[in-house]
Amino acid sequence: MAWSKRNRQLHRLLSLIFTGTVVLAMIAAAAGLTETAIWLFYLPLPPLFLLMGTGLYMYVQPYRAKRRNARPNPA
Ligand code: HEM
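That is the input. Now the predicted structure with protoporphyrin IX containing FE docked in place:
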């Protein structure tokens, strides 16, 4: 339970970081910086990758819980 709460908080924090990097890349592109520093365009990818991991974890959480609860009670 505590772990899924942490995961959701992390997903929320990562979404802010991701949005920040997208805005930064857009400003850099408008300023013409991306012509020399192409890596600025790739800046949103690491947080997006982590968002995918934490997001998919949240997605499967209800199905995992359902399976766990459906299992016969041992003893
Ligand atoms: C990359 C793949 C992503 C996947 C698979 C994914 C998946 C999910 C899932 C399953 C939830 C929970 C929805 C629910 O409560 O039922 C969620 C919540 C959320 N997602 Fe994502 N997401 C992704 C990317 C993003 C991105 C790019 C953003 C924003 C920049 C974002 C922002 C949020 C926010 C703010 C929430 C609500 C978190 C909360 O409850 O506090 N996600 N996402």
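The chain has one domain: 2-66.
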